[in-house]
Amino acid sequence: MNVTTTNVNGISVVGVSEAKLTYPLLTDFVTAVTSLIESGNKRILINLENVSYVDSATIGCLMDLYRQASAAGGSLKLAGVQKRVETMLTMTGAHNFLEVHADQASAVASFGA
Q: Are 98 and 45 in contact (CB under 8 A)?
């Protein structure tokens, strides 16, 4: 799976370069984000601009990562969510917890200085 991690203005940005983020691919993704949380990163942004489909396992995974980040005193946000993925977030109620931004720039700005 293609997962990249970069730092933008002190924010850990996790990029996913897969069109479908589904159960068989979640291990690398979860490991990357969990490692950031365990390393003390408080501001995590997951950029999903390349992802056009997620399954229920991915939604559960995103919620779990959100809880882990929150429990560690941090925040986890999403950027670049495509319409189909946004629909899944809404149908499952995950949008009530996960802060979603149109693109990476607006999401980075939302963290503040």
A: no
Q: Which ranges constitute the DSSP H helices of the chain?
A: 26-38, 56-71, 83-92, 104-110
Write the DSSP symbol of residue 72.
T
The C-alpha R_g of the chain, in whole angstroms, comes to 13
The DSSP element (H or E) to which 101 belongs, if any, is: strand 99-101
Q: Are 80 and 103 in contact (CB under 8 A)?
A: yes
pLDDT of the residue at 13: 98
CB 113: neighbour CB atoms within 10 A?
Answer: 5
Q: Considering the chain, what percentage of its residues have pLDDT values greater than 90?
A: 95
Which phi and psi (to 5°) does residue 41 adopt? -70, 125
| pLDDT one-digit tens code per residue, 54-105 | 999 999 999 999 999 999 999 999 999 999 999 999 999 999 999 999 999 9
